[in-house]
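Archive entry. Fields below.
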Amino acid sequence: MTAYQSVSKITYQLVSVTTYQPVREDAIDRETELSLLDELKGLSDTGSAYLDETVTRSAVEDYTSQACFDLEKRRVFSTLPHIGCHGTELSEPGAFRRVELAGKPVLLTRDHDGKAHAFLNVCHHRGARLVEDRHGCKHVFSCPYHAWTWSNTGMLRGIPHQKQGFPDIDKSQYGLIRLPCVERFGWVWVVPDPSADVDIDAHLAPIAADMEWLDMDSLQIAQETELTCATNWKLLVEGGIEAYHFSVVHAKLLGRISPTICPATNALAHICAACCLASR
Ligand code: FES
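PREDICTED_STRUCTURE:
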């Protein structure tokens, strides 16, 4: 399977906003704000747009190379934190959620003390899938193959016929494979590679202030939709962060605030310097 044929499965969740977000006073200092407004007005005056100073070309191989895709899977998807679920999806002690992260089966649990855990959803005996239900509430998980049992903290609890079949086994050495996991900003963050040496808090530090301000602990999952797209993942990400297509693809929505809309400047209405200046 080549990278361009590979299927990027995207799961996104829509959450309902349940709190009013007050303006964050430290979001931007006044000097920077005025500087940006002047920059935007300059662009507006010249009928220009904000562009990089140089044209960037992307090699087609970056999107089609299997070697590149394999490297990305190892270095990006397997070793950096993913959002496993929202904290409210593990709403009570014993709650669990089954997810797939970076192609790996993952079991998320909340223990008696309220702590979230993440494990590979794989039996440590013969590798059977431990949990099939998508979510639920259990304090003990029993493997559907030979019925070894684990607590929701990952400890091996029971082995049928242990005395006869496994007399010397040290159960403390056969817990579920634990994945790095922390619960922060309302979300359960998981690194899918159990051997990854990642400080999740350090990784999230640059966005910590914004995440705290968003107060996502107070949100609830309103709807979950899973999309499967046959494309390279970078095309999706890059398409999501460029605005060049707005006035064409989203003409009936964002197109209404596209450069042709602002009556005063013919610039982007939502970032129009003149409109912003008028409201100073
Ligand atoms: S494979 Fe799970 S108990 Fe044997």
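CURATOR_NOTE: Residues 123, 125-126, 128, 143, 145-146, 148 surround FE2/S2 (inorganic) cluster (CB under 6 Å).
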